[in-house]
Amino acid sequence: MADKNLTPRAAADTPRSLSGLVPFLRPYKLQIGLAILFLVLAAGATLVLPIALKSLIDGGLVAADPGQRIMGLRDHFLALFGVGAALGLFSAARFYMVTWIGERVTADLRNAVYAHVVEQSPEFFETTQTGEVLSRLTTDTTLVQTVVGSSLSMGLRNTVMGIGAMGMLVITNPYVMGQVLGILVLVVLPSVYFGRRVRGLSRASQDRVADSSAIAAEVLNAIPVVQSYVQEHREARRFASATEAAFDTARKRNRVRSMLVAFIITATFGALLWGLYQGTQAVLRGDITAGHLGQTVVYVLILVSSVAVLSEVYGDLLRAAGATERLMDLLATRSPVQDPAAPKPLPPVTGGSAVTLDAVTFHYPSRPQHASLREVSLAVHPGETVALVGPSGAGKSTVLQLLLRYYDTERGTVAIDGVPVRELALADLRGRVGIVPQDSVVFSANALENIRYGKPDASDDEVVAAATAAFAHDFISALPEGYKTFLGERGVRLSGGQRQRIAIARAILKNPPLLLLDEATSALDAESERMVQAALEAAMHGRTTIVVAHRLATVQRADRIIVLDHGRVIETGTHTALVARGGLYARLAAMQFDLEPASPALVAG
Fold it and tell me: With contact defined as beta carbons under 8 Å apart, do 384 and 447 qualify?
C-alpha cells in the first residue's frame, strides 16, 4: 500500500501545483528566453501565412493580365516559401530549446528527489515502500518531462497563435469573429467538465501504477524466498492484478479523453464549415474578395485548432500537476534526524572511542506502543569489547542504530567520546563508526569497488590488504576477473559467507575507532567462521568493539557481556561470572551448548 504521506493533496487538482517546478526552471532563464523567442517567431510565421495566401489568390490568381498573373504567382510562391522556411527554422529552434529544457529540468528533478530520499532516516522507509519512491522517480518525472519538454510549449504556441488569429479576425472580419466566439464557448465549457473527469482518473491511474511498482520492487528483492516457496505464479497473479487495475483506470481515463477529442474535432470542423459558409456568401455578395475569404478561413482554422490543442494540453497539465505535487511532497519530507545548527567537533582519538548511553528510552515510530529500550545505561571504555546478548526483540540492534543516529532517543543521551550524538554532524559521527551488519550488502559493482566503498580514495593495495585481513583475498582472486569481477545485483554470484567477508573487508578498510558487529558471522560456515573470527580479532585490536550476537559461543571472550531482555539491562559480567550467576544468560548458554558443542571462543558478532 502506498504511503499516505505521498498521496497528492487537493492542490494537485489545479495547474498551480506546477509552480513547484519554478526553482528547477530558474537556473535556465537564458534557455527559456530563447525558447519563448523562437516560439513567438514560429507563431508569427504561422500567422503571416494567411496574409501571404490572400496576396497569392488576389494578386496571382485573380489578376486579369496573364503575364502579370505568371509574374505574380512566382513572386507570391517565393514569398510563401520564405514564410514556410522561416516557420521551419524557428520551429526547429523552438523544439530543440524546449526539449533541452525538459530533459535538463527532469534530470535535475530526479537528482534532487533521489539525493533527498537517500538522506532520509530509516523512519521514512518504515512507512514508505521502495517501489513507491521508484515510481515517483520514473513515472512522475516522465510526466513532468512531457509537460515541460512538449505540452507546455504547445500550449504557449497555440495561445499566441489563437490570440493572433482572434486579433486578425477582429480586424478583417468582425462579423465572422462574433459567431466563432460563440462556437468556442460551446467547445470550452464541455472541455472543462471532461477535463475534471480526466484529472481525477489520471491521479487514480498514477496511484495504481505506483502500487504495481511497489509490488515488483518487493518481490524482485526476495526472489530466492519466492522461488523456495514455489510462489512465482501467485506473485505473477498479484502483479497482474495490480497492472490490470492500472489498465482499467487508464482505460476509463482514455475513454473520457477520447470523448473529449471527438467532441472538440467535431466542433472545430463545424466552426470551420460555418466560417467557410459565411465567407462564401460574402464573396457572392461582393463584400469581400476570394483572397479575403481564404485568409478568413485559415484564421478561423488556426483559432479553433488552437483552442482544441489547448484543451488537450490542459489535460496533460493536470496530470503533470498531480505528478509535480507528489514529487514536491517527497521533497518536502524532512528527516527527523538532522545535522545540528552548530555541530560540535569530535575530539581526536588514539585508540578506540568511548561510548555512553545514559537512561535511554526509545520506541520505534512504527511500534509506538512497544518500548525497544527502557532506561538503558551503558558505558564502554576506549578499546573495550562489549557483547550485547539476549532473546530476539530485546533491543540489541536498537543500541547500534542509536549509536549511528539512525533514530533519536526519546529520553536519555547517547554519546561518543564524550559528545552527545545529537550535537555531532552526521558525517563526523558515522565517519568514526564501522559496521558489519547481519545482512551483508554487496552492490552491483566489482569486488574492488565493493570493498573500496568503505574508503573511496583507497588504493588498490589497501583494498587487497583489507580483503586479505578478512580472508576474502583467496576467493576473490579465484573469480574469473579477480578483483575486477562484477559480483551481480546484491552479490548474487557469491555465497552468503563470501558476501559477509566482503562486508568485513569494507569495514576493515574504513579503519574506524568504533566497530559495530551485528551478527557478523551468522551467515558463515564453520570453516569460514574460524577464518573471519581470526580476522576480526586482529581488526578489533586497538579499537572499541560492540558485538551483537545470538550465538553465545562467539562472545565468551568479550571484556563484558551485557544481557538485555524486553529493552532493559538485566545482567552484566563476563561469560564465567554470568554462567555462575544462573540467570537468563546461563539459561541461554545451557540451551545452546546442549544443542551444539562450543566452538573456539573468539570474539565476533
Answer: no
Compute the C-alpha angle 296/300/305, nearest 5°: 150
Q: How many C-beta neighbours within 10 Å does residue 374 have?
A: 18
Q: Is the dihedral of CA 310, 315, 318, 324 positive or negative?
A: negative
pTM of the model: 0.71
**Burial class (CB within 10 angstroms; exposed 0-12, middle 13-18, buried 19+) of 353:** buried
**Residue linked to cell 517567431:** 41
How far apart (Å, rounded) are the C-alpha atoms in residues 106 and 239? 28
Name all domains of the chain by residue range, CATH numbers in brackets.
17-332 (1.20.1560.10), 349-432+555-605 (3.40.50.300)
Would you put residue 67 in left (φ > 0), alpha (ψ -120 to 50) or beta?
A: alpha
Alpha-carbon distance of 406 to 141, in angstroms, equals: 29
How many of the other CB atoms lie within 10 Å of CB of 344?
Answer: 14
Cα 438 to chain centroid distance, Å, stands at 27
Asked whether 345 and 337 are in contact (CB, 8 A), the reply is no
| H-state helical runs in 56-151 | 66-117, 122-127, 130-135, 141-146
SS3 category, 494: coil
Residue that the C-alpha cell 521502495 belongs to: 130
**Three-class secondary structure of residue 369 per DSSP:** coil
- What is the rounded distance in angstroms from the CA atom of residue 585 to the CA atom of residue 301? 87
Burial (CB count <10 Å: 0-12, 13-18, 19+), residue 205 = buried
At 527-563, the pLDDT tens digits run: 666 766 766 676 676 789 999 877 776 687 788 999 9
**Mean pLDDT value of segment 434-454:** 84
Helix 526-539 vs helix 460-469: crossing angle, to nearest 10: 120
- Say how far apart CA 316 and CA 346 lie, in whole Å: 52
Helix (H, G, I), strand (E, B) or coil at 376: strand
Grid coordinates standing for 440?
551483508
Query: How far, in Å, CA of 131 to CA of 147, rounded?
Result: 24
User: 77-103: per-residue pLDDT in tens?
Assistant: 777 778 788 888 988 888 888 888 888
Helix (H, G, I), strand (E, B) or coil at 581: helix
491: left (phi over 0), alpha (psi -120 to 50) or beta: left
Which residue, among 151, 157, 168, 154, has the nearest Cα to 42 in the 3D structure?
157
H/E element, 446: none
